[in-house]
């Protein structure tokens, strides 16, 4: 299966570099480019895509707002967003995850990691490493949005699903969770799938965000 990619960046040289890397792969195809978030929404309105590689800092409309609008317009079945950031824009990256992005990478990531991330996102998974998830959430979860007030959707979870969500929110991988609760990794994967379905979330990154926003987990705790 060919993964269709749209590249969104206000720098022509960056877009050209990404296109060169992606076009070298037989299973990846660049089907569109955009110079900012507003342009991206116009391109995606007429272009079928699987993954959007989205810069954050852009004029007219930034990547966070474009991600929010895209995910709101197509809550299911739309292209998945992989945002790009630098070391000094972690807050923006977290905001993009809140908006519905499936993960993020640093702009100086090696080409092979970018390619792998696009494939992972296209398959419906997240590319945010557990250690990065922990760092971002511990630093910014208490600074973004209103104070935690609970979420009624959490009442749908079983005791084991709630336990698994807590461990996911701490940044543990499926294998680490399996070792912690003494079940098979496949069982953890099933629990995570049920959690996402019940909470109507796109992926485990969104589950982590919800856990912090709802107060189920607190930064540093």
Automatic annotation (TrEMBL):
HTH luxR-type domain sequence ranges: 150-215
Which SUPFAM superfamilies does its entry note? C-terminal effector domain of the bipartite response regulators (SSF46894), CheY-like (SSF52172)
Instruction: Indicate the segments forming the Response regulatory domain, all copies.
Output: 4-122
Q: Where are the 4-aspartylphosphate modifications?
A: 55
SMART domains in UniProt: HTH_LUXR, REC
* CDD domains reported in the protein's UniProt record: LuxR_C_like (cd06170), REC_NarL-like (cd17535)
Sorted alphabetically, the keyword list is: DNA-binding, Phosphoprotein, Transcription, Transcription regulation
PANTHER family registered for this protein in UniProt: TRANSCRIPTIONAL REGULATORY PROTEIN NARL-RELATED (PTHR43214:SF24), TWO-COMPONENT RESPONSE REGULATOR (PTHR43214)
Q: What is this protein called?
A: Response regulator
The scientific name of the source species is: Micromonospora parva
